[in-house]
Amino acid sequence: MGFKQIYGPLAGAVFITAAWGLAAGCPFLKTWFYLFAWWSYIFGADWLKLRLSGRSLLTSNPKEFVILSLSSVFFWLIFEWFNLFLKNWSYLAVPSNIFIRWLGYTLAFATVLPGIFETYELLSNLLSWEFKIRPLQAPQTWFPGLVTAGALCLVLPVAYPKYFFPLVWGWVFLLLEPVNYLLNRKEALLYDLEQGSLRRPALFLLSGLICGFLWEAWNFWAGTKWTYTLPWAWLMKIKLFEMPLAGYLGFPPFALEAWSFWVFSSVFRKRPWLFGLILLVFYFFMFHQIDQHTVISFKP
Hints:
There is one protein chain. The protein has about 300 residues and is mainly alpha-helical. The chain has one domain (about 65-300). Helix content is about 70%, strand content about 5%. The protein has 13 helices and 6 strands. Strand 4 and strand 5 (about 245) form a beta hairpin. Helix 4 (about 60-85) crosses helix 5 (about 100-110). The termini are far apart. The relative contact order is 0.14.
């Protein structure tokens, strides 16, 4: 049997093994459970998409899948930079060896965009939903309002994190959608609204919610994990896993941000050497910052 026939079942077997090891108290699998769970899910969802449609993100363009994963690290590190000011989450029981730790950062953050996009691709095949709305007339007239709102969501969480920390989950979409519409119109979510269709935005919103639940569930059981500290104490009273229940409202718009970022990054992907250099420099800078400010405990 070829790779295309077996990588889905293999992903399922890896997930079952990791879950068994976690339940049995295996130190190695407890530390790395989150990675095993997410990469198993990504490969399994990709395999199901291949079975349903004959195409998938991984098998149709493996090179782009790798670029997507590397871009995912950069995308998430942007939010890690914001967290240096917000201090909304911290990492616990992170491996003390810097090479293993930084490899873990890379593999963990590389799952963000593939996880959302694989979920979206799978949902797009399983669900025939079509939400029609009144077409958005002249999207360009919305650009000043979107850019202004995006700029506020970019600046206020840094300037006044105690009051405006939730806004950090909206600025990418608000700032980049006008640019995407101008540079790559049919890939912009504003184009869907212009066509009177909510299907793609709705499926991304649902993908974000599903991925958010899985992020929190698998993190909750893992040995190396994150916890939250929010400035509004009442938010911490009702939690699902480590995440305050209200925090799940951030995952759907986060998926829209993921798509807006990916479309926008095509400008830089046309210059691979420059794109790779930017990624590498930002990786090293932010990994060091995470070690210094976000990790609160290490383990041998």
